[in-house]
Specification:
It contains 18 helices and 24 strands. By secondary structure, it is of the alpha/beta class.
């Protein structure tokens, strides 16, 4: 059924066929049954799906058809899919004779508003990152806000910036600094805000801010050394009027420069704003990368055409060293946060992220611009009180999307590291409250955290890829396998208001997928003379190690003792086992996956 529906989705989006014609081509003889089944799995009727998904891809104003790199071209599916007791069994043969493009992503983690890093409990999360090390960059914003360094440009205090940067560096992360005017906002739902901390309470003067940046960088060079600081990266955020309206800070969309008011929400004035900041930084650190603008692909940019915005930016005196995107699949948010046709605006398009990123890449290819794309923020939702954030779904969501966009992006950044950044008065002492973090407030790892650990282990030559399976070879005697069982949101999510679903029934909002069985056969023409393979497996899912299910087992919502915290830390981790298999000319591995499962296997060929 999923294969047939995948064909239907592709034809709805990429052909002009009628819905009836698509239904018959896919093997459905009754149009009413087809509509009912499609809506059950996708959350929308075929007609509504075609309309909404096409409307949501706002960056495709002038699409250009051209060849693109895609890991899907690497796959070799030899045997046909069979069915056994209702479960699909995939027999896949993989040859390692040909060299393919390597899988080597760079991951960024959003740490939060700079002041959050002054909290002692946040350092527990950073210690976890240092121990496991799946991320290269740690992104913060608001570092040069008046509350941190003071308001007097002649008497700036960098003592707190030192503490914040020390915390990032001590976690073995490279600082990634957003030096626009981004603040901290905690969304309760898509129309209401729990907490809001703006960058500044007053309009800003660009001359004073440029002086602040210069003093800050010179201070950092003195403290950390020029070579170290030059490896940091700086992003300049372009504020959007919708966001500024939502946080009631429209004045942050304007700066004063040479007695002129620059409206940096507009393209022309933002180019000037970015140029001044970039020039100031490169006077001091010529090799530091400065880019932007963190533009949201989910929010309609009504004041300018997206391809034109990029094209005009590339004509400016100071071009960005990278182009950054924020990707949240909320296709209902077009012109206003309160303009909703349904209560839950997460897109029904399971390829939302990859479609938008590919579209941006096509624009750069058409302009022949060799500027890397960074995703500095991505998540399934902006809300920090959505229980979806605590479900096992987030693991496969992260892996699926990260792998799909990796050929097009140099850096992939997830929002957010820790629920500590999203704590407010409403959640009291709760450990689970729908926070967007990869770690709970006590640094208990969620399944999404392990998703990044598994992805980081997959670096190497790509042998095979499909939507739910990646196989890489980091060296001639090691093979890595990463498999997921992805299930998208269904109509129960799209047509119910938030708050309807609790921990006890939250998985009702996902499609009910059959269990899967894999058989992976690997040809070993060069190394079959060795004796055996050691296979180390790690699997996490609803039955193994997810924090929400582990807390439900002991019937607690808060961690009131150290013993409870230690127990949950010990339980919230993947199941692990080791096997030894004899080698021949081929190595065959079989494994089973349930919905939302993640499975990582490392195969080491031994003497």
């Amino acid at each position: 059924m999923q294969k047939r529906l995948e064909k239907v989705r592709n034809e709805l989006l990429h052909t002009e066929k009628s819905v009836i014609e698509i239904a018959y081509d896919a093997g459905f003889s009754n149009i009413n049954s087809f509509n009912r089944i499609f809506k059950k799995y996708q959350g929308l009727t075929p007609t509504d799906y075609r309309k909404e998904v096409k409307q949501s891809i706002v960056v495709l104003s002038n699409p250009v058809e051209e060849e693109e790199t895609d890991l899907a071209d690497l796959k070799k599916l030899i045997d046909t899919t069979t069915s056994h007791e209702g479960t699909d069994t995939y027999a896949i043969q993989i040859s390692n004779e040909k060299s393919f493009e390597s899988y080597a992503p760079t991951f960024l983690i959003n740490l939060g508003f700079a002041q959050d890093l002054l909290r002692k409990d946040f350092h527990v999360a950073l210690a976890r990152v240092k121990k496991d090390g799946p991320f290269t960059y740690g992104r913060i914003w608001g570092l040069l806000s008046p509350e941190i360094i003071g308001c007097d440009p002649d008497q700036l205090d960098f003592s707190q910036t030192d503490q914040i940067l020390d915390a990032i560096l001590d976690a073995d992360l490279i600082p990634f600094l957003e030096l626009g005017f981004k603040g901290k906002t905690i969304y309760k739902d898509y129309t209401s805000i729990l907490a809001n901390q703006v960058f500044s309470k007053n309009s800003l003067h660009l001359e004073a801010y440029l002086k602040t940046i210069a003093l800050f960088l010179k201070h950092c060079i003195s403290r950390y050394g020029r070579a170290a600081v030059e490896k940091w990266q700086v992003e300049v955020w372009k504020p959007h009027p919708i966001v500024l309206q939502a946080i009631q800070a429209p004045f942050l969309g304007e700066v004063f420069y040479d007695d002129t008011r620059l409206k940096i929400t507009r393209a022309k004035d933002f180019y000037c704003f970015f140029t001044k900041i970039s020039e100031q930084i490169k006077k001091i650190l010529p090799n530091m990368k400065v880019g932007g603008c963190g533009i949201s692909v989910d929010i309609k940019n009504s004041d300018e055409n997206f391809p034109t915005f990029i094209e005009l930016w590339l004509e400016q005196k100071q071009q960005p060293d990278f182009f950054s995107l924020a990707v949240y699949p909320m296709d209902e948010i077009k012109s206003d946060f309160t303009e909703q046709r349904r209560s839950n605006p997460i897109s029904p398009d399971m390829y939302f992220m990859s479609r938008h990123v590919k579209a941006v890449k096509k624009i750069f290819n058409r302009l022949q611009a060799d500027i890397p794309i960074y995703i500095t923020e991505f998540n399934v939702t902006i809300v920090n009180r959505d229980l979806i954030n605590d479900t096992a779904y987030k693991g496969s969501y992260i892996i699926k999307n990260a792998i799909e966009v990796s050929p097009y992006c140099k850096v992939i950044g997830y929002w957010l590291l820790s629920d500590t950044s999203a704590v407010a008065v409403d959640c009291q002492e709760k450990e689970v409250f729908g926070g967007a973090g990869l770690l709970t407030r006590h640094a208990i790892p969620k399944i999404g955290y392990y998703a990044f650990l598994f992805l980081a282990k997959m670096t190497g030559r790509t042998l095979y890829y499909n939507e739910e399976l990646l196989v890489t070879m980091p060296d001639p005697y090691t093979i890595n396998i990463l498999a997921i069982s992805y299930s998208h949101l269904n109509s129960a999510y799209y047509y119910n208001s938030q708050g309807t679903f609790r921990k006890e029934n939250v998985y009702a909002v996902f499609n009910n997928m059959p269990d899967k069985k894999y058989r992976v056969t690997i040809d070993l023409p060069e190394i079959n003379k060795r004796q055996q393979a050691k296979i180390t497996s790690q699997q996490i899912g609803l039955k193994n190690g997810t924090h929400l299910e582990e807390m439900a087992k002991i019937a607690i919502e808060t961690l009131s003792t150290r013993e409870e915290e230690a127990y949950l830390q010990a339980q919230s981790l993947p199941k692990m086992w080791i096997e030894h298999l004899p080698l021949g000319e081929q190595l065959t591995i079989e494994f089973a996956m349930e919905t939302h499962d993640l499975l990582f296997k490392r195969i080491v060929i031994e003497e």
